[in-house]
Design brief:
The chain is α+β, with helices and mostly antiparallel strands and 231 residues long. It is built from 3 helices and 11 strands. The strands form 2 sheets. Strands 1, 2, 3, 5, 8 and 9 form a 6-stranded mixed β-sheet that branches. Strand 8 and strand 9 form a beta hairpin. It is globular and about 45 Å long.
Length: 231
């Protein structure tokens, strides 16, 4: 099921948001409106750090798939316990959505997450089949993700299909497979920073799920702000 990262888990254990987007075609039914390249614009704000790393980057030996597998149980849960021990810091919902980190800290930022716990959204794919996972995420017949973005201090990056990953994990809500759109950010410079994640999904299967659960209507959209203090 699908959930945003700042919503109480007892509202759905559904649509798990944390952020994301993609210029690739998969034939009829695929939907990629509003998606763009994952390269951030070049301007003076890049000096503050917090740039989206390439999807194949492996900070401390962790690929995005490794991070998905390691964080799935915590992210699908209610965040009441400690997060998994990692060599980087993950952004996730807290009462204040504020975190303090050291200046050399790499951030892991999930934007949108989903698993196959009932009621399943559409035809949940084999998470080890990259093409099937991407097709499911962006097809207008399934989730129909229109965009997923990370904005750091006003600099927005749309995440491409390369930032979708999945893992076989038994999740607290009864799921067995987990998927997420997420990215790593390079270390931020000392000071206070605002990081915003947002996404929009409008797929046919998602809309049917919305009607069944009452969680949303004809689309699913969210924007979540985090404050990151770097010392």
């Amino acid at each position: 099921m699908l959930t945003p990262f700042d919503r109480p888990r007892d509202l759905s254990r559904i649509l798990r948001a944390a952020v994301v987007a993609i210029p690739i075609l998969f034939g009829p039914g695929a939907s990629f409106a509003g998606l763009s390249s994952s390269k951030p614009p070049s301007d003076e704000r890049e000096d503050a750090g917090g740039k989206v790393l390439p999807a194949r980057a492996e900070p401390f030996g962790y690929s995005l798939k490794d991070a998905a597998r390691t964080t799935a149980v915590f992210n699908v849960g209610d965040h009441s316990g400690p997060p998994p021990e990692l060599p980087f810091v993950m952004l996730y919902s807290t009462p204040t959505n504020t975190v303090t980190v050291d200046r050399a800290t790499v951030l892991y930022v999930p934007v949108l997450q989903n698993d196959d716990a009932p009621p399943v959204i559409g035809d949940f794919p084999n998470v080890d089949n990259e093409a099937a996972l991407i097709r499911y995420t962006f097809s207008g017949k399934e989730l129909g993700v229109q965009y997923a973005t990370i904005t750091v201090d006003g600099r927005q990056t749309s995440l491409s299909h390369e930032y979708v990953s999945g893992a076989t994990v038994a999740t607290p809500d009864g799921g067995k497979h987990y998927m997420v759109i997420a990215a790593y950010l390079s270390p931020l410079k000392p000071g206070r920073h605002k990081i915003t994640i947002s996404a929009l999904a409008t797929g046919t299967a998602l809309v049917a799920w919305c009607a069944f659960t009452g969680f949303c209507t004809d689309s699913y959209a969210f924007t979540i702000d985090y404050t990151v203090d770097v010392r």
